[in-house]
Design brief:
Strand content: 25-35%
Number of domains: 1
Number of strands: 8
Radius of gyration: 15 Å
InterPro entries: PUA-like_sf (IPR015947)
Helix content: 10-25%
Structural class: alpha+beta
CATH topology: ph1033 like fold
Protein name: EVE domain-containing protein
Length: about 170
């Protein structure tokens, strides 16, 4: 699961759900309870791509299928009406987690290492068993309980002088 915005990441981690644009219904409608998603933050997620690296920071489990919400969550000018509940129990401390750019040669998801980042322009990137096992082996040793790592992600995901994005009122 590719996340390129700090506010969206804070929302995903704090609400234990993810959201997708309506245009991605075909891709995300196949998600089912029990599916595993690696949470990947892009270099630009925290708005400093010269400092930050794209990292795999968590593994999430889908807890129910994707549904359409009549009141989409919004980040900036973009709407995300498709929602999916998740369970994230562990999270890499901020600034840690495997750097994806260092792994592209070893991952089957990126058959052409020169253009690997193009494949990250969609919310979900399919992984085979090999890729999943490799990322799990690299991620697992650095994970901490969610309640220990989450506060720093929330702090960095909330711009100064604003409150954290919330679900729209019911």
């Amino acid at each position: 699961m590719v996340i390129g915005d700090r506010e969206a990441l804070a929302w995903v981690l704090s609400t234990q759900q993810t959201a997708f644009p309506a245009a991605r219904l075909g891709q995300v409608s196949r998600l089912a309870a029990g599916d595993r998603l690696f949470v990947y933050t892009t270099r630009g997620c925290f708005r400093n791509p010269t400092r930050d690296r794209g990292r795999v920071i968590a593994c999430a489990t889908v807890t129910a299928p994707v549904t359409r919400d009549d009141t989409p969550v919004r980040f900036g000018a973009r709407e995300y009406p498709l929602r999916c509940p998740l369970r994230v129990t562990e999270l890499a401390p901020f600034g840690s987690g495997p750097v994806l750019a260092d792994l592209v040669e070893a991952l089957h998801a990126f058959p052409d290492p020169r253009s690997w980042s193009v494949r990250l322009r969609r919310p979900l990137v399919p992984l085979d068993a090999h890729d999943s096992a490799l990322l799990t082996d690299l991620l697992r040793p650095g994970l901490a309980p969610l309640d220990r790592s989450l506060p720093e992600y929330l702090r960095r995901g909330t711009p100064p002088g604003t409150s954290r994005p919330q679900d729209p009122p019911a």
